[in-house]
Amino acid sequence: MADTIAELFVDRAADDNPALRTGDASWSWREVVAESAARASLLTAIGNGAPLHVGVLLENVAEYVFVLGGAALSGSVVVGINPTRRGDELARDIRHTDCRLVLTDSTQAPLLDGLDLGGAEIASVAELAWVKRVAEHAGAAIPPAVPCPDDLFLLMFTSGSTGAPKAVRMTQGRAARTSAASAVAFTSDDVLYCAMPLFHGNALLANLFPAAVKGASVVLRPRFSASAFLPDVREHGCTYFNYVGRALSYILAQPESPDDADNTLKWGLGSEASPRDVEEFRRRFRCYVVEGYGSSEGAVVIQPFPGMPPEALGRPKEGQDVGVHDPATGAECPRAIFDEHRRLLNAAKATGEIVGRDVLSSFEGYYANPEADAERSRNGWYWSGDLGYRDEEGTFYFAGRSADWLRVDGENFAAAPVERILGRFPGVAAAVVYAVPDPRTADQVMAALELDDGTAFDPAAFAAFLVEQPDMGTKWAPRFLRIVETMPLTATRKIDRKPLRAERWTTTDPVWWRPTPADPYRMLDGTDIDALRHAFEAAGRAGMLA
Fold it and tell me: Among 442, 412, 431, which residue's Cα sits nearest to residue 329?
């Protein structure tokens, strides 16, 4: 097994198996390594022999792959730039990670106009100047000395859905080990479909690099397209795909056809799809879909297993000691108790933060962010920032991010168990639960609902449904309901809660509310919003609405 990504590319230097297809162009692994060696020589020259931090602001194009390979071979560091970031936040990401070079193209370059990038050079990879610079290094040999496993290779930003994005450090060794583990199920005959963005670990560690481990082929799409998914799979004979967030739901929203199962897919791997979407995808496309749990930080790994409950994450990787702890006290939470219908009965007590108690050495930290490092490594444990609970058999369940705690009338609870209940209501395609301020103290519950096409929201039926749910906590029922056409998403198609929290009930979307828990739901209007504002002012909490 290769100890570094650099060694992984060296191992493919004489491999003529198809490696990369994008649009009408294709490259063998031998050709990909040759292109990477040219970039390695160029990056070494730009950095004067020192490790160069290269920001990459590109869609999924071949040049991105060649730069990744070149950085691996030369000891440079690739900083994946999230194109959904804008203005000062985008500039901050580039400056914070000490980028000396930012590679982009004509579609993304305008995002950088007028920004203070700390002196970083901007190069457009499609323009003649960059093409000539690469050509000057064509035919370059693979560097005689490749980086070591502990050398920094990638800086990947967290999604930022719960705060400012942090740049996660990934060394050559961690990338190689993770990719080798992901590649176990592949052979050189497999064709891996990659439409998730290359600035995210899911695309790199669950697709591109595992393909390199086995010498398999990668079909690279510039960006995800639900309508192009099945045609692409059929055209290229894809056997596998990776996904994050709501990708499955968008594919399933395409018109169903009797021949959907006529495809070459064997399986897919991803995270954060709903159990309903996973089951429906398996039925419709005859493709086995596996949900996994991991993070950019890579410390705690929870793996699915055959026969586990559909809403479960799985069990920790063999050898890892993982628990669920109260983040305030550090005490371990009791195991989850379910009724005969698999409804959680003790959510308030069982829910806590997922903690790796012997995995801290696997956490490589954040770049230039000691405060975030300290927060993650409290008391010598790795605190994941994810909420969860586990049953008596040691199976784990996801309950949201640490920012998804709500406190209503003195009771703390997590968003995910409430979301699972709301998702049972007929016609709900997606449900997101989040806290909004209460005029007097703590929080009120607000939910955003995305409905199936052609479904009208029935507030009376919804209120009756809530009363009928035996596992609905007494404080959990939403005070406010926002009906959205589509949920806001991050660049990796995870639901983005930040704009929902920020907008609260001041939105153009329809919002239903109950002035008191005993009232029926009714449409929120301008008079109600004024009354809410006055209530906050009277309680001295007007600042909560800022």
Answer: 412
Strands 101-104 and 53-56: parallel
Each residue of 406-416: pLDDT tens digit?
988 878 899 99
3-state SS assignment for residue 205: helix
Select from 112, 162, 92 the least CA-distant residue to 367.
92
Supply the pLDDT for residue 448: 98
Task: Tell me how many helices (H) and strands (E) the chain has.
Answer: 17, 26
Helix H segments across 23-109? 29-46, 62-74, 87-96
Between CA 195 and CA 243 the distance in angstroms is: 8
Q: Which of 421, 420, 439, 447 is nearest to 504 (CA)?
A: 447
Q: How many whole angstroms separate alpha carbon 40 and alpha carbon 68?
A: 9
Tokens of 334: 């009791």
Q: Strands 522-523, 511-513: parallel, antiparallel or unpaired by DSSP?
A: antiparallel
Q: Give the pLDDT confidence of 414-437 residue by residue, as tens digits.
A: 999 999 999 999 999 999 999 998
To which residue do tokens 């493919």 refer?
Answer: 12
In angstroms, the CA 308 to CA 393 distance is 11
Task: Output the six-digit token pair for 522.
Answer: 């009714």
353: DSSP letter: E
Query: Whole-model pTM?
Result: 0.85
